[in-house]
Amino acid sequence: MHLTYHLPRPRSPHSVLGGLLLAACALLLGARTSEAHVLDAAVATPDCGTSTIQLHFTGSFMANGPFSIPYTITFNCTDGGPAIPPISETANGTVVNATPGGVDGTFDITATQAAALAGRTCLVSGTATLFQAGVQYNTVAMTDPAGATEFEVKCGPPPRVTGCTPGYWKQDQHFDSWVGYAPGDSFEAVFGRNVPGTPSLLDALKLGGGGLNALMRHTTAALLNASNPDVASPYGVADVIALFQQAFDSGKYEATKDTFEGLNQTGCPLD
Questions:
Q1: Which of 5, 70, 230, 268 fits 164 for a cystine, CB–CB 3.0-4.6 Å?
Q2: pTM of the predicted model as reported, rounded to 2 decimal places
């Protein structure tokens, strides 16, 4: 999960989802109220088109130097459509105000997933801790107005997913639809794993049977779907390769094979 920090900017009215706030916790013993950090937050409407959920942390802070906010955010996102697996990940990072004297600001954290979030319902929870000059001031837990520490973020309607089958990709009249790869390319070189024999990508598409053969067959089709810009795959090329490697290394092929097979059968948009 990749996280980026954006410089403070005004919050647009449509970016706030349901007025979700971070509840301020107790201040560090000895800190005067007038100097206390006051941290509020809201969850922005997810930008599902770019596979992101954005969180806005806003508030007033002590004016005597820069501060940092380490955070931990957990996303549990349910299946967004046929053969699209759920997401369950924790993001950790730190946003930093490096400008001494700043007292107000909006700090945006953007969590980016490899697969599209569109159509998913995500349960989000997390905490943020404020530090200044190495001193911890307070920790806040993300809550909704009722005090729940886990709440839903619903992404918009899923995009249309398309995919072409191994049977499509192995036909020589369709070789002109291959993008970035050629039928004779080594399967092992592309996927970074030693498999039985020395198959090309085309050989893998022609494999029969189940087990590893089925995984290789549908993985190759998923790779070609991901690499063709006219096919609406929820995965990128790097995602397909990584998922194959995980399945191969674990020796558990069926779940990944089923995911790719389902996507490969969603309807081929190519001639």
A1: 268
A2: 0.52
